[in-house]
């Protein structure tokens, strides 16, 4: 119809004006109605693609029904005859109320509470990070009144920065945006979606670097960006936005959210790295690796998480990402896992990867490695021997991989042993201390020849020798209160109310069903109650190995204590699986985001193949 109109029109190279079209159509009553309807349907369907964006009021319905047991939030206090775990989960809920009430009474709506002094700490953006981080925990615990009050405050926020103020991109994405998205997914309150969209849009120019990697910080007033002290983009910063921006693209239908995040993934697919050994620093301008350090601790940690979790979040559809996770986790197991000489504690460290020398002509390397660009090389590494509390998320991630990936039996076994051995070592670093709380960083005792401590070859040897007893690294030595027997020294003596060990215990409990992880979690919770509780909140511990009944504390209660530490404890002790792992993924700040499938429309809009 349109083409016949064009053919009859003297200006056939252009679209006829409305008046011309109408005068032509008017002479052919009724015959043109079906064609016109068809034309309108075509415009309706392809319109967003032609315009490059969805209609203004476009909001996706989540394809998977989010039937949350707490919709609307329900909570029944346990009766006196309730089982131990119910009572324990109730105690964690009370700990949350204690810390949030303290924040609310003394520091609301500033960023964080000083749990000793009652002072306010505006160490982030001054946007009230504790409110955003605590939001979904309130929902999960059925604290409706706090939740509703918080949503009101959030609804009034504008997210503009003061002149010369820059907000840290990584922290704001994982804490504020992650908190909003998760609370929206749980409650479906449209204010949270509106504010997530607003914040997502205001932070988006952080990706406007030459390479597309995000800057360290951004002024939402001017869109100017700033680099961090390393002058590079950390690997954790490069990727810890995928879950948030991709889910935001899904619920708003806006392609720019998907495209900016996906550009970072593209750089990873194209990077000249071997076997998923993604280094910790990247050149923000060129998008290329800028050092040769391989780590799962600070600078890298959550990027590893986001490889597996974004594959899971989009219903296992983006298989290229799964391959990156498989390669990276294989290399972690091969290059970063060591055991100590006496106690055989399995630990994960970081290492300088030595540049592989180019293969000699005619040489046949024993096991050639493939770079993402197709070249071959054989890397080797020099370990530092440090073991960070931050790395204690790894056992949980490996266990989640074992549960969700279709690994061959032999690999499944290795990944699970690595998860169990590492989670146990994380536990030991708590159990060994006088307070029962784990230090932030340990310096592990190493074999005189580093390679003698590599875990994988020892497991292979144990297999060859007939698999007698437990595999190396899983023999569970008891706690050692005496320093001499520990096989490590404490490098950073603080316990910063961090969640990573408890996060892994939760995933270990849910994926293996072994109740020992709940018991260990309970022991840690009791130590937190004993040493970290103050009159108005909970405080970080200065020295975890001090023998006095009251360990010295810092005037800090990080928002992640309410987002992560208390949430994982609560979920660990609640019998019912409130956030089922086959329906949700936790972002790196423990904000659950629902698993969804890209619709056909989204695939076209976002150019997903
Ligand atoms: C949290 O803010 C996040 O888990 C982040 O990825 C690293 N660690 C802190 C808490 O320790």
TrEMBL record:
* Sample GO molecular function, one term: hydrolase activity
Q: Which cofactor does it need?
A: Ca(2+)
Recorded metabolic or biological pathway in which this protein acts: Protein modification; protein glycosylation
Q: Where is this region: Disordered?
A: 352-383
| InterPro entries linked to this entry | 6hp_glycosidase-like_sf, Glyco_hydro_47, Glycosyl_Hydrolase_47, Seven-hairpin_glycosidases
Return the broad EC class: hydrolase
Q: What is its EC number?
A: 3.2.1.-
Biased composition, class Polar residues, residue ranges: 364-383
Q: Which family does the UniProt entry place this protein in?
A: Belongs to the glycosyl hydrolase 47 family.
* Name this protein carries in UniProt: alpha-1,2-Mannosidase
What is the organism field in this record? Lentinula lateritia
């Amino acid at each position: 119809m349109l083409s016949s109109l064009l053919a009859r029109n003297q200006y056939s190279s252009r679209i006829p004006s409305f008046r011309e079209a109408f005068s032509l159509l008017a002479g052919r009553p009724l015959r043109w109605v079906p064609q016109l309807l068809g034309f309108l349907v075509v415009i309706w369907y392809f319109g967003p693609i032609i315009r490059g964006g969805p209609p203004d009021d476009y909001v996706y319905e989540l394809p998977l029904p989010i039937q949350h047991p707490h919709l609307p939030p329900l909570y029944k206090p346990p009766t006196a005859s309730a089982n131990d775990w119910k009572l324990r989960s109730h105690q964690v809920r009370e700990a949350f109320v204690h810390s949030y009430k303290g924040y609310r009474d003394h520091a609301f709506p500033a960023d964080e509470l000083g749990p000793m002094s009652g002072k306010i700490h505006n160490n982030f953006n001054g946007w009230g990070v504790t409110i955003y981080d605590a939001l979904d925990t309130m929902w999960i615990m059925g604290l409706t009144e706090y939740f509703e009050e918080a949503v009101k405050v959030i609804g009034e926020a504008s997210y503009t920065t003061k002149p010369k103020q820059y907000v840290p991109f990584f922290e704001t994405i994982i804490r504020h945006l992650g908190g909003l998205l998760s609370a929206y997914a749980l409650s479906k309150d449209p204010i949270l979606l509106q504010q997530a969209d607003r914040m997502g849009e205001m932070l988006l120019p952080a990706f406007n670097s030459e390479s597309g990697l995000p800057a360290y910080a951004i002024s939402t007033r001017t869109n100017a960006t700033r680099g961090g002290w390393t002058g590079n983009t950390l690997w954790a910063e490069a990727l810890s936005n995928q879950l948030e921006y991709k889910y935001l693209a899904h619920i708003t239908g806006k392609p720019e959210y998907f495209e900016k995040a996906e550009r970072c993934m593209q750089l990873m697919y194209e990077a000249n790295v071997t076997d998923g050994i993604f280094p910790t620093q990247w050149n923000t301008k060129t998008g290329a690796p800028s050092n040769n350090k391989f780590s799962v601790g600070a600078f890298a940690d959550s990027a590893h998480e986001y490889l597996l979790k974004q594959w899971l979040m989009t219903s296992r559809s983006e298989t290229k990402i799964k391959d990156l996770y498989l390669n990276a986790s294989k290399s972690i197991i091969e290059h970063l896992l060591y055991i100590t000489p006496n106690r055989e504690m399995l630990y994960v460290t970081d290492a300088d990867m030595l540049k592989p020398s180019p293969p000699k002509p005619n040489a046949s390397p024993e096991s050639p490695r493939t770079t993402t660009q197709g070249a071959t090389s054989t890397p080797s590494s020099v370990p530092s021997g440090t073991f960070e509390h931050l790395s204690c998320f790894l056992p949980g991630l490996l266990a989640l991989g074992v549960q969700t990936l279709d690994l061959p039996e032999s690999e499944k076994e290795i990944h699970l042993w690595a998860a169990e051995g590492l989670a146990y070592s994380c536990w030991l670093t708590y159990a060994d201390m006088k307070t029962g709380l784990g230090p932030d960083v340990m310096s592990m005792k190493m074999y005189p020849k580093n390679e003698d401590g590599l875990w994988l070859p020892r497991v292979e040897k144990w297999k060859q020798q007939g698999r007698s007893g437990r595999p190396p690294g899983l023999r569970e030595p008891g706690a050692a209160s005496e320093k001499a027997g520990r096989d490590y020294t404490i490098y950073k003596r603080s316990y910063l109310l961090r969640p990573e060990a408890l996060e892994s215990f939760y995933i270990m409990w849910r994926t293996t069903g072994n109740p020992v992880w709940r018991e260990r979690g309970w022991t840690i919770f009791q130590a937190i109650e004993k040493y970290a509780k103050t009159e108005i909140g909970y405080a970080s511990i200065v020295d975890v190995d001090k023998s006095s009944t009251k360990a010295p504390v810092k005037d800090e209660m990080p928002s992640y204590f309410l987002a992560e530490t208390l949430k994982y404890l609560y979920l660990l002790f609640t019998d019912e699986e409130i956030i089922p792992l086959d329906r949700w993924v936790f972002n790196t700040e423990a904000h659950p985001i629902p698993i969804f499938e890209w619709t056909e429309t989204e695939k076209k809009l976002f150019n997903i193949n």
